[in-house]
Structures are given as C-alpha cells and as structure tokens.
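assembly run, all chains below
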Amino acid sequence: MVEQRTSRRGRPVSEASRVAALGSAAELLDERGWAGFSVDEVARRSRVGKATIYKHWPSGFALAVQAWGERVTQAVPTLNSGDARSDLYDQVVRLAAFYRSRSGAVAVELLGAGVSAESGAELIAEHFFGARRTATLALVRDGIERGQLGGELDPQLVIDALFGPIVFRLVNGMPALTDSEAAALARLTLRALGA
Amino acid sequence: MVEQRTSRRGRPVSEASRVAALGSAAELLDERGWAGFSVDEVARRSRVGKATIYKHWPSGFALAVQAWGERVTQAVPTLNSGDARSDLYDQVVRLAAFYRSRSGAVAVELLGAGVSAESGAELIAEHFFGARRTATLALVRDGIERGQLGGELDPQLVIDALFGPIVFRLVNGMPALTDSEAAALARLTLRALGA
Amino acid sequence: MVEQRTSRRGRPVSEASRVAALGSAAELLDERGWAGFSVDEVARRSRVGKATIYKHWPSGFALAVQAWGERVTQAVPTLNSGDARSDLYDQVVRLAAFYRSRSGAVAVELLGAGVSAESGAELIAEHFFGARRTATLALVRDGIERGQLGGELDPQLVIDALFGPIVFRLVNGMPALTDSEAAALARLTLRALGA
Amino acid sequence: MVEQRTSRRGRPVSEASRVAALGSAAELLDERGWAGFSVDEVARRSRVGKATIYKHWPSGFALAVQAWGERVTQAVPTLNSGDARSDLYDQVVRLAAFYRSRSGAVAVELLGAGVSAESGAELIAEHFFGARRTATLALVRDGIERGQLGGELDPQLVIDALFGPIVFRLVNGMPALTDSEAAALARLTLRALGA
DNA sequence: GCCTAAGCGAGACGGTACGTCTCGTCTTATC
DNA sequence: GATAAGACGAGACGTACCGTCTCGCTTAGGC
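ok done. output:
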C-alpha cells in the first residue's frame, strides 16, 4: 500500500485560513451578490492574504462557488423514501422556495457566470448540482424500476423537466414561482411521467 | 391624436453612433462573452465616445443586453400557424438549437448577470423575452381556446414548463440538449397538456 | 466720405453674448481660479453657446485673460503727476496690495499658464500689462528727462526691477509683500536710480 | 539615539518605480510642458501603474514639481566664496540663463500652477526654492556681517529684489533677460545695497 | 536547541476598467 | 446668418480590482 505522505518540511497549510476565506466569501456574497464580490474584499474581511487565497482557489469565481455551494446543497436535503413521485414533488417545491430566497438569487448569478468562467462548468457541477443531481438520478431510476415512473424518458431529462422551470422563471426577470405554482408544475410533469 | 414631437433644440442624437456602439458591443460579446465585455473596448472599436455611450445606455449591461437582444429575438421567429401543439414543439426544438450555439452561451451569461444588475429584470424581459413571451402566451391561449391544449395550467407556467429545461441544462454545466432530447422533452410536456 | 457699412444680412453678432461670457468667466475665475475654470461652465452660467464663445475667443485661456484683464488693469490706475519718483513709489505699493488679494492670486495663475498657452505671451501682454507697461515706461522716460531718475538703466529694466519682486514673492509660495515691505523695496530701487 | 525603523510589513515600496515615474514625468514636461502633462501619460511611458503613482504623490502636480525640481536646483549651484557681492551677482546671471532655457519656461508654468494647487506653495517652496533660498539667505546675512552689504533691508527682501525681475520678465510675455541685462540689474540692486 | 524550509499576513506592483468631466467641433431649430 | 442648446470623439481624471510579487514573521521537521 502506498503510504500517504501528508507531512512535509516547512509550515503546513493553514486549514483555518481556508475556512476563514470561505466564511468571508459567503458573507460578502450574501451582502453584495456576485456582482459586488471581490477577492480583495474577502482578504480584507478574513485577514487572509491574497496569495493564500489564490493558492487554495484558482480564481475568485472558484472561491465564490465553493463558498456558496454549502448554502445551495444544504438548502434542500436529498431524500429517497421509497416513493419516488412524492420525493420528487417535495424536491421541486423545496427548490422553488430556495430560489425565491436571497440565496437563490445569488446562486443564479453564479450559474450565469459559470457559463464563461474558467472551468466554470466543472465548478458549478461539483459544488452546486453534483451530489444532488446524482442522488436525484438514483431516485428517478429507483422509481422507474419500481414502476412508479414510466421509463420512456432519459432520467437526466426527467430532472431537467422537473427543475428547469424554476430557474427559468428567475432568469426571465419574472417573480419566482410560488409554492402552489411549483406544485402545479410538478404535478403536470409527474403526470406525464406516469407509469 | 398625439402629435409626435420629434425635434428638440440642439444637435440631435446621432443614430449612427447608437448603431455603431450596438454593433461593436455585439461583436465584442461574440468574441469574449459578457465576462470579457467592457465599455472602454466598445468605445475603442466603434469610435464612439464613452460619454455618448453612457448617454444612450445607463450601464454597460444595458448596452450588452440590447446589442445581444437582436440576436436572441432573431434566432427563433415567433409563429402561430393555427396548430398550437406543432408550433410549440417547433419553438422548443429551435430554441434548444439556439442555446447550443455560441450566442446561446453568451445569452445565458447575460441572463445570470441580469439577476443582480440595476434594472436587470426589466432589461432582460424587454430585450430577450418580451415580445417572444407575449407571442407564445397568445399561442398557448389560442391552443386552449381551440381545444388543442388542456386549460388546467396557467399559460405562463406552460411556457416555463416547455422552455425551462433548455436553459437549466446549460447552467448545470452539462452539454446542451440535442435536437432529439429537446424533442423528447417537448413531446412529454405537450402530452401532459393534452386536451 | 466713405460710408461705413456695418450692417449685413442675417442676425447681427451679439454684443450682449460677448459681455455675458466675459462676466461669467470673471465670476468663475473668482470662485474657482484658473485651475477650476472651464468653457463649459462659462457657457452654462452665461447661457451663451460654446460655439459663440469660440467665435469670440480662440481658447478658454484667451477668454479668461480678457475677463480678468479688466480687474487687473482697473485695480491700479496709471498716473503721471509730474513727480516720477513718487508716482512709481505709489504704483509699487498699490500693485503689492493687488497681488495680496484673491484677484492677484488668480492673476498669477494666468501669468504662469500664459507661458505655454497658444499666443499666451501676446494675450498676457495685451490684457494684463500692455497699457500699464507703456504708461509706466513713459513715466520713467519723463522722469529721466526731467532729471528725477538716472538714465543709465534701460527703462524696461527699471520696470522689472520695481515690480518683479512683488510677483516673485507669490510664486515662491511665500506670504505676499506687506505695504511696508513693498515700500522698503521701492525706496531701495528708487534710491539706486537716483539721478 | 532614535532607532531608524526602516522595515515594515508587506512588500516594500519600489524605489525603481518611483524613479521611473520621476524620469518619465521630467521627460514629458520637457516635451509638452505642464499644460500637456498627464498622469496617464507618465504611467504609460514609465510602465508604472497609476495607483502606484498616486501612492507616491497626492497629485500629478506634486509629481511634476518634484520631477522638475531636480532640474531647477541643479541648474544653478549655490555658492558662498566669502565675497557676497560677487556671489550674488553670479547667481543672478546664472539664474537668468536658466530661465531663458526651455527648462525655465516649464518652471514658470509650474510656479503659476502652484498658486492654486493643493499644497502648491509648500511643494514649490520645497522642491524649487527651499534649499536655494535658505543658502542665499545665509549668503546675504554673511555679507551683512562682514560689512559687504548694508543691513537696512530684510535679507528676504534682498533676495526678492535680486531675483524677482528675472521671473517677472517671463510672465510679462517679454523676451527673457540677456546676460548683460541681468548683469545690469544685479549691479543696480547691489549698488543700492552697498554698505 | 538550533537550522532550514515552506506557508503565512500584509500590502505594493503593472494593468485595465470604471463613470464623469472638459476640450473644441458639429448640427439642429429658433430668432 | 448668428444664436442657444447640446451631442459628438477624444482622452484625462482618481479609484477599484485583478492576479502576481516581495517582504518579515511563524511554524513545523530534521539535525
């Protein structure tokens, strides 16, 4: 077995600095959004040197995405109760609620920036959707296997069909979906996916 | 009838400058996207003074959105042939093709930035979705009236259900929808909306 | 006799505009000095078009010099009482008082700018020193003729010797000459010029 | 003894940048004078960032004065040979020669601007006249002590009397003093100051 | 208990964009 | 035909942020 050589000579990398930068980055995104975000300001607030920040993250965008990722992923817990239809319905309603919040608006800003940022797609996928999309994919597949959902549509597309409308609303510059609107959309799509 | 008072004192605003700025802005967005956009560079390329640009548009974002709006709205013509189901199906497939293009990626960047920009929602609504959303809304309403579509869902939500998944894919950092995937999604949603 | 044909077709040149621009220019120089002077602001205050201003004066500097020239030349009246020594002594003391004032500070700003401005020397000579220097020159020559002053020094240099120290003080960043200091200097130089 | 605390936290200020900016500023003043001077152009030529320039100097004027100060102070060396009369005479002739040069014209521009600039008087006094005026003052006082000069006039006024006419000529928009004119003026004033 | 190496904060660096201002010119409708 | 109003291209203003760099200080393992 390969021995993991964790300690080297010299002062070790400071976990405290990493955490402090993430915390200040999240705080700054909360206050000013991505448009008002700057690495200088994160360094100022966290008392972490800019060079140290650039050692941990390749860009301010990468830092912001990771800092915000915690909020995005914690906002809506993944679930798999055995009833795929009801689990998916719950997820849609909960995610709609998230995107109605301040946090959701900042998340959408970052989603847009991710399209052009260096490694933006990977960063967004990893910190915003990665674990969730995988879990929801399993949920859909389980549902199809159990006969709760029809299997004619690619499970990836099922996810897009369920959650896409929520984000679309926001980037259209329209009011976010209410709970009842989100519920109506979820019922529509789930009905179409009926076994 | 309201008399159109077109002339005022002083030298009139130069239409040529306005058009030149829009052209250079579109060119710049094409080359570098919104992340690489700057008012200085637009001024440089178009040989239009910065002060003139700021007289026409309150911010670089407003200029970029208007410049790009022409591409977005011209990419997919609105239609109303009398057959709502087939018209909506066509729109979905065409729009998916647009968002697969370079132009679509830049459009998504701007959509994200619009969330936080000053008057971002209004600008996006006016230049990106305004006319199209209104036309598509009429299409849906006509379809319901003619009995081609079921009327249980708010027409606005119908639009979100149809077009939302396309944009969602992109901001998830995943490959854009292929024609056949877009078609499958359109069929799913239209089936659920069956009379 | 040749009839002077002063009127031509079209609207005559407005003397009122010229005077208004001069007035606003002087007011602006009073408030902000040459450093804070701008043709735009003169046009704004005087409600005279910028093009009209540039028709009357080739540059903002020319306008400023003419506007301020009235203050400079009116501040110290020329005199020739027959007693050259006492007349020159009076002039020195009066001019020192002028350069102690706000008006004097602005005048020195313009003197400095005149060194490099287009036609600066001519403008300064004409509006600031022209008539005065000619008159004082006559005073000196009369004094020499009458035997009140020695004639070994070029009259032009006499003027420089008498009035130079006053301005020099100001551009050295030192407090302006008091009346008694100016008097002491005048007496020194006049003594040296004794017949 | 006071301990010299030379090192501080953070990257030290770059002496090379400071020197490069001064050099480019002097070059620019030489070419275009104060009227054609701009911080942007200095930054461009010296490849020093504008922020760095504004860290070293509070304004473009402060930079220009310091950059030109070296030329002004090196143009005429101070001296004190023991013979005050001959030393002062030499100084007047040499200074007249300096003000006849291109460098002298730029210096006069800066003198005028210093009247209104923020801290203009202090900057001019420090970089243009400071050391020289102090040295010349000592020269005059030594001369009075040794009986070479009469002591009835304030030594500060002696300096104004000797050097004022030189600058006055220039700001009058007249040709600068020739060597022989300067010499005549110096003789006149020194005669008046005779013991 | 020193020595050496690496990470640390602080902050200066060159570069570039911001949005505003002024310059001197121009193009209208009005007088 | 001269005017005021005001838009125009050009480019400087002083500030902010980018990502890199250079300091002195700190913290570890190796000797």
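Chains D and B do not touch (no CB pair under 8 Å).

Residues 57 and 63 of chain D are 6 Å apart (CA to CA).

not gonna interpret more than that til we talk
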